[in-house]
Design goal:
mainly alpha, 0% strand, 445 residues, 87% helix
Length: 445
């Protein structure tokens, strides 16, 4: 059945996978927007700043979930392309076992050191208790979130991208309802927002378990395979490592921007960055949806040796990313005064946010193409150039821009660091294709 789906015309197949994935990621991006909307109007700039400080931790948890899910699903699709059903089910079972074990270990470590971590992330005496209330609640239910991420990746690779979209929509729906009651109706503030986020994840997780326990799926969970052996563990980690890097990039962007926004703009600057971050993270998630939607096709075609079709899928992805990047740039400029109002930010912080949205807007043009290119490398098991692009961003390129540009431009340099770093990465990616492609024929096989 899966092979029959993959015989569709390439453009139709591309949209069959990518459009639901984009919508799914867009909905995932709205989770944070929803919390920020209710908190912004209930607690103002301080509540919004407190949530923004915790986002790097959220990105770390989300990143580990995406690493495990994507790493395992690359194996699933490659083995499907090669016709190895046993290895498909082994990878699926190992994914779920790793998700539970690693999430519990990581969460426990974070909770033990949560206060010094939040101080490191930029929390002062005012924001620390607010941020702690929210993130402790979210971390307590993080295993639900990670399992939901893994199941969404498995659904996309089990020819069910539309179902994944609808399942994640149920989580968003309940998150909105719960935020209304727990933040506004019963004024539980940040604790209520965190509790709403955790409870909302239970619904998509329950539906996913029901699906994979039924007969519609071609994937079967094997209890004896849920503890992966060394070979499968390393393969999943290696294949998924660039996905972790993608989320660490977002986390690092948040962390470095928080530091510099506080340094050059104070509390108003941090609240302004919360608005910019929320607005642009949604667009970044949509771009991620293009890359994630391409992964099942690219991995399957690579495993099946259908290299011409892979190149065609890559061209479609790049074209769509560029088009959406231009639209995102225009939306950021046109909506620069509306977005702060939407999140309840007023006064000086709103003025700073509006200016920041205009300055940072060009980042969208390069952002999507870099994501598509790096994930294409990853899906074809060329993890070295993928890791270079993704990890080089938060380790070298973005920090350098955030250090040097504000020295020249002040607070405007904080906002300019985003587009400058993305266009630098686009240049690096082009160089990787020229050099690495000639050496290993990456785009030709």
């Amino acid at each position: 059945m899966y092979r029959k789906t993959m015989k569709m015309p390439d453009l139709r197949l591309f949209f069959r996978y990518v459009i639901p994935s984009m919508i799914t990621m867009f909905i995932g991006g709205l989770y944070n927007i929803i919390d920020s909307f209710f908190i912004g109007w209930a607690l103002g700039a301080e509540g919004l700043a407190a949530i923004n400080i915790t986002f790097p931790i959220f990105c770390l948890i989300f990143g580990f979930g995406d690493m495990i899910g994507t790493g395992a699903c690359i194996l699933i699709s490659h083995n499907r392309g090669a016709g190895d059903v046993k290895e498909e089910n082994t990878a699926f079972s190992a994914m779920l076992g790793m998700a539970v074990i690693l999430t519990v270990l990581i969460t426990a470590g974070l909770l033990v050191f949560i206060e010094p971590i939040l101080v490191f992330l930029g929390a002062d005496d005012t924001l620390l208790p607010l941020a702690k209330i929210y993130i402790v609640m979210v971390l307590a239910g993080s295993v639900f979130h990670v399992l939901a991420i893994c199941f969404m990746a498995a659904l996309r690779n089990d020819r069910q991208p539309v179902l994944a979209m609808w399942i994640i929509s149920t989580g968003l729906f309940f998150n909105i309802i719960l935020d209304y009651f727990l933040v506004w109706y019963f004024p539980l503030g940040l604790f209520g927002a965190g509790l709403a986020t955790v409870i909302a994840q239970v619904f998509p997780l329950t539906i996913s378990v029901w699906y994979f326990a039924g007969r519609r799926t071609e994937l079967k969970f094997l209890w004896r395979r849920c503890l992966p052996n060394r070979e499968h563990f390393l393969a999943i980690m290696r294949n998924g490592f660039p996905s972790l890097g993608a989320h660490l990039t977002i986390g690092a962007m948040l962390l470095f921007h928080n530091w510099q926004a506080i340094r050059y703009g104070g509390t108003a600057g941090l609240a302004a960055y919360a608005v910019i971050c929320e607005t642009e993270s949604v667009a970044a998630m949509v771009m991620q949806g293009i890359a994630s939607g391409m992964q099942p096709m690219v991995s399957f075609f690579h495993g099946a040796g259908e290299f011409v079709r892979n190149r065609r899928i890559l061209r479609y992805g790049m074209s769509l990313a560029l088009m959406l990047g231009v639209l995102g740039c225009l939306a950021s400029v046109v909506g620069c005064e509306f977005f702060p109002f939407l999140l309840g930010v007023k006064g000086e912080a709103a003025e700073i946010a509006a200016r920041g949205l205009v300055i940072s807007a060009p980042m969208f043009i390069a952002l999507g193409m870099v994501k598509v290119g790096s994930h294409y490398f990853q899906a074809t098991k060329n993890t070295l150039p993928a890791s270079l692009l993704i990890h080089g961003d938060y380790a070298v390129v973005l920090p350098a821009c955030l250090v040097f540009l504000p020295m020249i431009l002040g607070l405007d340099g904080v906002w300019a660091a985003m587009p400058v770093s993305r266009f630098m990465l686009l240049t690096v990616m082009t160089g990787c294709w020229v050099w690495y492609g000639k050496k290993n024929r990456v785009l030709l096989n």
